[in-house]
C-alpha cells in the first residue's frame, strides 16, 4: 500500500501527453495561422478577407462535425482517433505551403478542421474529466498553459522563419515538427479512461480492475443533455462561447494589424510570443482561481480584465512596449476559452452527460469562427483599417458578463425543478 501511494498517478502522465498534444497542435498550428495572412496575400496578390474565408470554412466544418465527434471518441480507440486527427490537421497545414491559389486553403482546411476537432478541442477536456476527480481546474489550466508555452516558443520562431526562409518553408517545417512529436506522445501517454489501466480517477482510491466490483464508485451527478439543452443556462453558455471565441479570434489578425500600423513581420511574431505567454499565465491563474472562487467569479474577472488590452490598442497602439503589454493581457483573457469553457460547463450542468452537453455548447465556438473571422478580414479589406474592431470587442466583453450571471440563474432553476441528480 505504501509503495502504491508513492507512485505518480497515471492521470499526471496523461496530462503531460494531453499538454504536449494540445500545445503543439493548437499553439503550433492553429494559433500561428494569422502570421501567414500578410505574407501569403502579398505574395499571391489576394485580399486578406478572401484568404481569411478559409477560417470561416473551417468553422462550418467544425460546427457540422462537432455533434458526432464525442460519439466517435467514445466508440473507437482513442489513440487511433487522435493519430488520424493529427495527421489530417498537421498534414493539411503543411500542404498549404504548396498552394498557389486561395482555393487550396479553402479545400485543405476541411480535413485540417476535422482533425483539429479531436486534437485541439474535444480530446483534452473529455480526457481530463475522465481522469481527474479532483484538481480538475488545475489540470485544465496546465493543459491550456501548454498552448501558451509552445505558442511563446513557436510564434516568434515562425515569424523569423517566414522573414528568413519564406512562408512555404515555414508551413512545411511546423507540420513535420508537430507530427514527429505528437504521434509518439499519443502512443505512449494517452489512455481513454482510468479503467483501462486498472485505476480510478485521481481523487478516488486506486484499485485493480478485477477488484472494482467490491468498491462503490460514486456515479456522476448533474443533468441530462436533453434537459440542459432546453435551459436558459445552456443558451447563455452557447452565446458566451460565441462571444469569447469572437474576442479571441482577433488573435489571428494581430500580425496583420501590427503590420498595418507600421511594425514588421518579425516584430509581429515576437509580439505574438507575449500573447502566448499571456495564455500561459491566464491558463494557470484561471485554473487555480476556479478551484478557489468558482468558475462563475473567475469568468467574470476574466471579462473585466479584457477591457485593458483593447483600451490600450485604441489609445496607444504605436507604442511598442504598450503593444506587447496589450497582447500579453489579451493572451490572459483568451486563455479563458480553453480553461473556463469546460469548467463553466461542468459547474452549470455537472458530469452526468458532460461530453454531449459540452460538444453541443461549443458549437457556439464554431459559429463564431464562421462569422467573426471573415468579418474581421473583410472589415480590414474594405476599410483599410482594423481600428473599429477593438470597440466591438469591448461591447462583447460587457455582454459576456451579463451572460455568465444569467447562466447561473438558469442553473438555479434547473436545481429547483429537481432535474439535478
TrEMBL record:
Coiled coil: none annotated. It is a multi-pass membrane protein. Residues 11-413 form the Major facilitator superfamily (MFS) profile domain. Keywords: Membrane, Transmembrane, Transmembrane helix, Transport. InterPro entries: MFS, MFS_dom, MFS_trans_sf, Proton-linked_MCT. It is found in: Cell membrane. Its main location: membrane. The chain crosses the membrane at residues 51-68, 80-99, 105-128, 140-163, 169-190, 237-259, 265-286, 298-316, 322-345, 357-377, 389-408. This is MFS family permease. The lineage of its organism: Bacteria, Bacillati, Bacillota, Bacilli, Bacillales.
